[in-house]
Each structure stands twice: as C-alpha cells, then as structure tokens.
Design brief:
239 residues, alpha/beta, TIM Barrel, 12 helices, 17% strand
C-alpha cells in the first residue's frame, strides 16, 4: 500500500499507483509538504488516477480527530467523512481516534453512520459522482457496470480467482453490490478493502460456479444478476 505524503509522490502518482496494490492519501503529511489549500484538489487528482489504473484508494488523517476525547464529531468532520463517500474512495481510515481515543467503538459506529447515509444519497444522485477518466483497456469492466445498470440487476457476482477482475469492476463504481466468490481466503481478505465488494470464501460453491446458490445466500431470489467468470460475462435470471 503506497502512502502518498510528498510532492514527488503526487507528481508521479501514475507511476506509483501502477506498481502498488493500493494507495493511501496521507492528507496530514501532504499539508506539511505542500500548501494546505491544495490538499483537497490533490486528493481528487489521486483518486482519479487510482480509478483510472484500477487501484483501491484510502482517505486518511484526522477524519474524526475530535473524537479522541469527544463523544460527537464536529460538523466539519461530518462533512469531511461524507465528502470521502461522494468522492467514491474505497475506504476511510482512522488513526489516533481508534488507537488512543476514549471510545474507539463509537468512532467506528459514527463513521459507518455517516458513510452509509452519504452512500445512499450518492447512489440516488449518480451525476454527482467523480467520474473516472477514459481508459480503453478497461472497457470490459465499464460494460459490466453498464449491463448491471441497464438491466436493474440485484448484484454482480464475480467468481474471483484473484483480485484483478473484482478490482476493475469496483473501480467503475456500479450502484449494486459486487459479490466476490473466492476459493482462496487471502483473496477474500484482500477484497474486503474494495468499495461495494462483499467477498465470500466458499471453495465448494466456487468450484460448482453456482451463481443461483450465491444469489440465494445473499438474499436474492428474484430478478437478475450479472455473472462474471474470468472472460465470461452473462446476465442471469433468478425467477
């Protein structure tokens, strides 16, 4: 995971992201290395590059800093966490709030509450999303997302041998859950980082390629799903 904290890293973000497994935006360090008023714009730039290169991105630094001692966040902190959701980052990160804070469980519950509500609003108003730039090599994953949207599917089911396909689909930010069926526990653990991805470690169902059973497992028994199995993409009816 590459920690972006210096001007050089920002200037070479495409090179850094292309060889990293993911990127963390260390806004505190960036505000020391660069003029603080530039950090929001730099964060947006880093997010766009990560989306383009199919790399997960984490927003970090003092997101709920006042909750080290206080029970409730400030209004500015609420907006900061919400903005991370609107920018479509994969994950948000706490530091001192949960390492030395007086109530780390409350911090996580607070962040979850803000992100859940904001995510729902972002999905209801998709034109506000930060768009990834044109990337012809990713057309297949964009097509998967479009297929899901146009057919009003309940989920995208990916039979994930590794993290690559699921990561690319997640970076298109579809508005439905991505259920990643894994035969490897490590792959399932790694996919927990990605936005909108719900990994399931089940070698038996992975071997059977039983998309209907997976759909039932996640509570879907009618409608449609998109099924992705390596190079094969299909639309599957559940009725």
């Amino acid at each position: 995971m590459a920690k972006i904290e210096r001007k050089t890293a920002v200037e070479k973000i495409a090179d850094v992201a292309s060889i990293a497994d993911g990127v963390m935006i260390a806004r505190g360090d960036l505000a020391v290395e660069l003029p603080y008023e530039q950090v929001p714009a730099i964060s947006r730039h880093v997010i766009r590059e990560c989306r383009r290169l199919n790399r997960p991105v984490i927003m970090a630094t003092q997101m709920l800093g006042s909750m080290v001692e206080n029970e409730f966040p400030t209004r500015a902190e609420i907006s900061d966490v919400a903005n991370a959701a609107y920018l479509r980052v994969d994950s948000t990160m706490t530091s001192e709030e949960t390492t030395i804070g007086s109530n780390p469980v409350n911090v996580i519950k607070t962040m979850d509450k803000i992100l859940s509500y904001t995510d729902a609003d972002a999905m209801a108003n998709p034109d506000d999303w930060v768009r990834s730039e044109n990337a012809p090599e990713n057309d297949w994953s964009r097509s998967v997302s479009s297929m899901a949207f146009l057919n009003h599917v309940g989920a995208i089911v990916v039979f994930a041998r590794d993290t690559d396909s699921t990561t690319q689909i997640s970076c298109r930010r579809p508005d439905v859950p991505i259920v990643a069926v894994c035969e490897n526990q490590l792959v399932a653990n790694q996919l927990n980082l990605l936005r909108g991805v719900f990994p399931i470690y089940t070698p038996d169902l992975f071997a059977l390629r039983d998309a209907h059973a997976i759909a039932r497992m996640v509570g879907l028994d009618r409608g449609k799903i998109v099924v992705v199995d390596q190079d094969d993409v299909s639309l599957c009816g559940l009725d």
